[in-house]
Amino acid sequence: MFPPGANSTLFRLCLPAVAGSMGDMLLIAADTLPRSLLSYIAFRIAFQDTLERVALAEQVGDRADGFGYLTEVPFLQAVPPQVQLDLLAQTWGRHMATDPFAADLVDESVIYAACETAARLVEEQPIAVAWWLTGGPIQAPVPPGPLLAEGLRALHINLPSEGDFLLISQFEDLPPKEADRVKWKFGIDPARLECLFEVLARWRTSAEFVERLEGLFGLREIARIRSILHLE
After folding, report:
1. Which residues fall within 8 angstroms of residue 206, CB to CB, at 6 or more apart?
2. Which of 200, 185, 23, 49 is nearest to 116 (CA)?
3. How far apart are CA 211 and CA 56, in angstroms?
4. Which of 107, 117, 112 is CA-nearest to residue 196?
5. Which of 109, 203, 215, 230 is deepest in the core (most CB within 10 A)?
6. How far is Cα 109 from Cα 141, in angstroms, rounded to an integer?
7. What is the mean pLDDT of the chain?
8. What percent of the chain has pLDDT over 90?
9. How far apart are CA 45 and CA 118, in angstroms?
10. In which band, very low, low, confident or very high, does the pLDDT at 3 lie, cut at 50, 70 and 90?
């Protein structure tokens, strides 16, 4: 479903498929994240904004965390920016993979946060957004504006996610047994939350980080990303 008046053909424009791939591959419950121009725009804007903040923080000598697209998810606000970028690349890689992949709560968090961040930036910083969308593997013929922002939010709203990743922060102050009882009451399987706790312990990008950026950034852009993040 697309916002009233939206050109659905444009918003559903298929991304260049990975060799041998068929259809949308990141599974969320009984649905999939559409492999569309909207998903490309959401991931790219969220990544670019976070990367620019990393570069700015280094220029002014501020090593503090607490910024980046993933701060849209309260429980994950402390995830270091470079790990946020790695997680976005991981979810993007699964989205573009040749085989179906069942999304975990980290993937769902990334999709939600990327869409919300991108929509907000389209509304607040259209000039920056237009710049971030140039020079990539895909030319996005969609001007930043209310229609694009609405489409980006609809991308995650239309997915059958339960939003468990947004509820977990409410259980942090409860004793473990009480927290588990409340989670089950809300229909949340504690085992599904483990991947979110694992993310909080990460400080470095993975070995596959750069490889997973294929299709989202071009070679020159990836070289700049490596430079900003001091990757060999």
Report:
1. 86, 90
2. 49
3. 25
4. 107
5. 109
6. 27
7. 83
8. 55
9. 6
10. very low
CB 216 within 8 A of CB 95: no
pLDDT at 90: 97
Residue 179 contacts residue 167 (beta carbons within 8 Å): no
Residue with tokens 């790990």: 83
Question: Are the C-beta atoms of 181 and 91 separated by less than 8 Å?
Answer: no
User: SS3 sequence, the chain?
Assistant: CCCCCCCHHHHCCECCCCCCCCCCCEEECCEECCCEHHHHHHHHHHHHHHHHHHHHHHHCCCCCCCCCHHHHCHHHCCCCHHHHHHHHHHHHHHHCCCCCEECCHHHHHHHHHHHHHHHHHHHHCHHHHHHHCCCCCCCCCCCCCHHHHHHHHHHHHCCCCCCHHHHHHHHCCCCHHHHHHHHHHCCCCHHHHHHHHHHHCCCCCCCCCCHHHECCECHHHHHHHHHHCCCC
* Mean pLDDT in residue range 136-146: 85
CA dihedral 154, 27, 182, 194 (to 10 degrees): -120
Residue 186's φ and ψ, nearest 5 degrees, are -90, 5
pLDDT over 70 at 20, yes or no: no
pLDDT > 60? residue 6: no
pTM to 2 decimal places:
0.85
- Return the higher-pLDDT residue of 60 and 204: 204
The position carrying tokens 């620019």 is 52
Amino acid at the residue 115: C
| β-strand pairing of 101-102 with 26-28 | parallel
